[in-house]
Each structure stands twice: as structure tokens, then as C-alpha cells.
Amino acid sequence: MFQQSKDELALILYGTDETNNDLADENNYQNINVAFSLSPANWHLFEEIQKIKPGNAPADLVDAIVVAADHLRRETEGKRGFVAKRVLLFTNAATPFNDHSLKIILESLQRQDIIVDAIGPTWGQQDDDNQHDENDRPDSPMHTSEHADNHEDTANNHPTTNGHHLNSPKKPLTQQQQTGIRIINDIVNTTEGSLFTFREALTILSVHQSKTVRPTPTKYIMQLADLKLHICTYIQV
User: Fold this and answer.
1) Taking a C-beta distance cutoff of 8 angstroms, is the pair 91, 61 a contact?
2) What pTM value is reported for the model?
3) Which Gene Ontology terms cover its molecular function (predicted)?
4) Pick the CATH number of 8-233 from 3.90.550.10, 3.50.50.60, 3.40.50.410, 3.40.50.300
């Protein structure tokens, strides 16, 4: 928003008490809310993000991807200038979902050239810090059980982006999370997307990129007797 980007984005929440999307009927695509329709970022989007609170309603991540893809299709149909269409899924993969039509969904995503990226607790990487994986909620960073003893002392001393330290206990991934991560990997790989952990995403978001402005020269003609010199100047602010 501060870069005045022409990119357009939508905010679609799943697991909400209310249902507001074009695919919803009495039995399908419930608890999914299109909180901000596809458009350039503005303060209304910021206000909607500030309202987000954890809920107790069912959160089907596959249904959420379908609703997001459908919203992209509806809002971009007949319009030009869209270089790429992406769905960014933010999940801890901890809730049940229905993947019975996954093959059809993947084929539809590929036909529409929609890329699915995902931000989650862990995607199975084996790194030195074990990615400080989050297992239960996006605001509760956790480790997986592997190498738990080796990192027990360092986990609590690892600062977050706001300078606080993590004091969360380590928990293994649940069976539901393992299943969810496997399905998400399939979706992301099929659409040639990317996977990020919560920590990686926070690191990226903590870096502010200033708006890129094309330098514009001021042109002059300097004349010395019969000699004319074409010059230009740039002003750095």
C-alpha cells in the first residue's frame, strides 16, 4: 500500500462464523468470508485485517482455495493487465478438510494459470533451527519433535521480530497437520508455487521496500560562444 503498487489483492477468511462468498449454498463452502474484494490495497483492507480474530467454526483449506480461485476468475475475467494470478494460503493445517475433488480442483487451477503459495508452520525442511515450527496456531511458534533436545535451550532465547523471546513448548505435528501439509505440498507443487514458514514470512514482511521512482532528467543547452553543449541534470532527494 505504501509503495502505491498497482497490484490487486483480496482478503478471504475461512473458519469464520459468517459466510459470504459466491459459491456458498446451504451445504457447501460455508464459513468462508470474502472480507475484501480484489482491488488495490487501501485502508479498508488494513481495517479488515485488524478485525481478524481466531474462531471456532470449521476451516476447510481446500474449500478456501476453491473460493479464492473462483473470486480471481470472476474479478479478472475480461480484464487486461494481469501478469499473474496467485492464491496465498495462510494456514497451520490443523483442521479437517474435504479433498475428494482435489484432482478436479488442481486441473481447474492449472487451466486458469493460478499459482498457489502457502505460509504454514513447517513443510518438512531439515534445517539447523528446525524453523521453530508452529503447530497449533499462527501466533504460537513451536518446534517439531526432531532434534528437540538439541534445541531446548536455544528455543526460548531466540528473539522474535518485535524483540520478544519465544517461551512456547515444543509439540510434534498432529496427524491432521501431517495430512494437511502433504495435501498442501501437492497443490503448491502442481501449480508451481512456493512454500514459506511463518518465520520466513515475518522476515520478508519486516523489510520495507521504498516505492521505485524512475529518475527524470532536466535537460539544458549550455552555450559558450559558438559552442553548444546538451546537458541534463538529476536531483537526488
Assistant:
1) yes
2) 0.67
3) double-stranded DNA binding; telomeric DNA binding
4) 3.40.50.410
